[in-house]
UniProtKB/TrEMBL annotation:
GO terms for molecular function: ATP binding. SMART domains: AAA. Its main location: membrane. This is ABC transporter ATP-binding protein. It is found in: Cell membrane. It comes from Isoptericola haloaureus. The chain crosses the membrane at residues 34-55, 75-95, 150-171, 177-193, 264-288. It is a multi-pass membrane protein. Coiled coil: none annotated. Pfam families: ABC_tran. Residues 358-603 form the ABC transporter domain. Residues 36-323 form the ABC transmembrane type-1 domain. CDD domains: ABCC_MRP_Like (cd03228). Keywords: ATP-binding, Membrane, Nucleotide-binding, Transmembrane, Transmembrane helix.
């Protein structure tokens, strides 16, 4: 993942034009109707503002005529027109606010969805990289707010430009030389604000790690799962201090950053103020010389004030587009980078052929940033209808091997094969639908019990809330959790989380059975279960494994386990140690071999027979 982020080589003018073009396209694609409404409202607001300047000139002129002419109908109409124009401006302003907000949300949704698409489809390996997390965190935040700000900035630019043209035209009609002077006044602010935007982006990038750490500590302090340990270990003060220290570091950097920004913007504002003062002085001199009438001068001053406000708005809008544009670049380079990764994969893949066994062959794999391989020359095969077990001590590589066999990690060397086809030549989604996998740290979704089982069943949305659909129930029954789910307040439709009203929670073992049901529910050729019985009571464990082959209906399974009693019945057992397969065979063969398997088996079995255990009695 590149850290380079936004492109900065382009000339300022071209860059803003390009950003405006890009964000216009983005906003347009979200809602052409609202876009048109927004532009229409801007034009209306601009016209109202421009007309106001001209009407002010008329009103002043007629007020100055009052001693001679008295209150004329023309004066009354001018005042009414001014009031109508002002009211119109306010109403249009309110409408603009609503349309802007709606458009902003639509843009945010569209960008968020694109980030979600990337986050949920990039190769799993990315999630082992802190750099990826860092960028993901930054772009997640940018996606939620920055496109909205580009949209706002864009409309501010359009609005102020159009209004400036309106008011400018009115002023030009009065005094042609005023406009260029006022435009020159905006230049210093424009330049300093550009530099401020770059500073802001650099600051955000520099603070991403600190922010991630703060978010993590905050998450630990407020999350339900962590709540019990925080109390049991009395770590709340330690966590709060840690949070405060991180925040202090951030605040210190923020102070320096804000000071730098303040210095820059003061410089820009002072220079612009000098130009404005010069313009007003010229006007005063002209009035003194009698070259400008009082009414016109009054209108000109109102015009200058309005136009100056518009120029400030314009500068602010350009700054917003530019600043948010830096984040948009960052966001789009992230999206492009990961789209490219996918594009390098073969674009003409075949659907997975009928299952004829799956295997990993001479596979080596190293986690990003790790100094040693997690797997070295590992070969594990699961034939059609076979039940295969993988055992080994902690950290020996069992889960990693299961992930490579599941197609979630690409091996560094060696192959993962579906029959005689490497995984890389098959359609990813097809392969995934043919392999069901449940990990030891399976996810407890805060959705209904049915949804927790039929997660991937996108077509069944309408039926999901029905209590205990047959196929969902069958999977739950096979995993031994049907009774517990049926007894929930709303049966299978009960939401499984205490975070929401009208929900319920399951015990650790019930959750594990539900996760197993999730694997059974999928009509997959190969079922991979990583530590499926870690939280099961002895009866549930016995029931699960004694009925496993029946439940599988001839499908193949690979399961990882530390419990040797559960692996005895497997067709083949692989024993892993330090990332290698050191033994394989049936239980009987491995016991006869008297290697690591027999040693671990004896250790475990011996715990049940403290007075003496011999593996000659298994
Ligand atoms: N995300 C990761 N990043 C870096 N190294 C990892 C990662 N996950 C696991 N490892 C390392 O890879 C090796 C194999 O881990 P793995 O989880 O496959 O072991 P395991 O046999 O399943 O262990 P356990 O029985 O404890 O579940 C270990 O040395 C572990 O430290």
């Amino acid at each position: 993942m590149s850290r380079t982020g936004p492109t900065r080589s382009k000339r300022p003018g071209r860059r803003v034009t390009e950003l405006v073009r890009r964000s216009t396209r983005l906003v347009w694609s979200c809602s052409p109707r609202l876009f048109v409404a927004m532009v229409g409202l801007q034009i209306l607001a601009a016209a109202a503002l421009g007309l106001q300047v001209l009407v002010v000139a008329q009103v002043l002129e007629r007020i100055l005529d009052l001693p001679d002419a008295g209150v004329t109908t023309a004066l009354v109409w001018s005042v009414v027109a001014l009031a109508v124009l002002m009211a119109l401006g306010s109403v249009v302003g309110v409408a603009q606010g609503s349309v802007r907000r709606l458009l902003g949300e639509l843009v945010a949704r569209s960008m968020n969805e694109r980030v979600q698409d990337v986050a949920t489809t990039v190769p799993l390996r990315n999630f082992e990289s802190p750099e990826f997390f860092e960028t993901l965190q930054r772009v997640r935040q940018s996606a939620a707010t920055r496109p909205f700000q580009v949209t706002q900035g864009l409309f501010t630019v359009i609005g102020t430009l159009v209004s400036s043209i309106g008011v400018g035209a009115a002023l030009v009609a009065l005094y042609p030389w005023l406009l260029p002077l006022l435009a020159v006044g905006a230049v210093p602010v424009l330049l300093t604000s550009r530099r401020e935007s770059a500073l802001e982006f650099r600051f955000t990038v520099a603070q991403t790690t600190n922010q991630r750490e703060r978010m993590y500590v905050n998450f630990v302090q407020t999350n339900r799962d962590e709540a019990k340990e925080i109390r049991a270990f009395q770590v709340s003060t330690w966590l709060r201090d840690r949070y405060r220290t991180l925040y202090d570091t951030y605040l210190e950097a923020l102070r320096k950053h804000l000071l730098r920004r303040l210095r820059l913007s003061t410089l820009g504002q002072v220079l612009s103020g000098v130009v404005l003062a010069g313009t007003l002085l010229v006007l005063v001199v002209l009035i003194a010389n009698g070259e400008v009438g009082i009414a016109d001068a009054g209108a000109a001053i109102v015009g200058i004030r309005v136009l100056q406000g518009q120029f400030q708005g314009l500068v602010g809008g350009v700054q917003q587009v530019h600043e948010s544009g830096l984040y948009l670049d960052d966001l789009q380079s992230f999206l492009r980078h990961h789209a490219r990764q996918e594009a390098t994969a073969p674009d003409r893949r075949d659907s997975a052929p009928p299952f004829a066994g799956a295997r990993i062959q001479d596979v080596s794999f190293r986690y990003p940033g790790a100094t040693t391989d997690a797997l070295t020359d590992v070969s594990i095969a699961v034939g059609p209808g076979e039940v295969v077990a993988v055992v080994g001590e902690n950290g020996s590589g069992k889960t990693t091997a299961a992930k490579v066999l599941a197609g979630l990690y690409d091996p560094d060397t060696g192959h993962a094969m579906w029959g005689d086809r490497p995984y890389g030549t098959l359609v990813d989604a097809d392969l995934r639908s043919r392999i069901a996998v449940i990990f030891q740290d399976f996810v407890r979704y805060a959705f209904s019990a049915s949804e927790n089982i039929a997660l991937d069943d996108a077509g069944a949305d309408a039926r999901r809330d029905e209590l205990g659909r047959d196929d969902v129930r069958a999977a739950a029954r096979a995993a031994g959790v049907d009774g517990a789910l049926a007894r929930l307040p709303h049966g299978y439709a009960t939401r499984l989380s205490r975070m929401f009203d009208d929900s319920a929670d399951l015990s650790g073992g019930q959750w594990q059975r539900l996760a197993i049901a999730r694997a059974f529910y999928r009509d997959a050729d190969l079922v991979i279960l990583d530590e499926p019985s870690a939280a099961l009571d002895p009866r549930a464990e016995h029931d699960l494994f004694s009925s496993l082959r029946r439940t599988l209906h001839g499908r193949s399974a690979l399961f990882v386990s530390h419990r040797f009693a559960t692996v005895r019945g497997a067709d083949r057992i692989y024993v892993m140690s330090s990332g290698r397969v050191v033994e394989s065979g049936t239980h009987e063969q491995l016991m006869a071999h008297r290697g690591l398997y027999a040693e671990l088996f004896d250790l475990q079995a011996g715990a049940y027979f403290p007075d003496g255990w011999s593996s000659s009695t298994p």
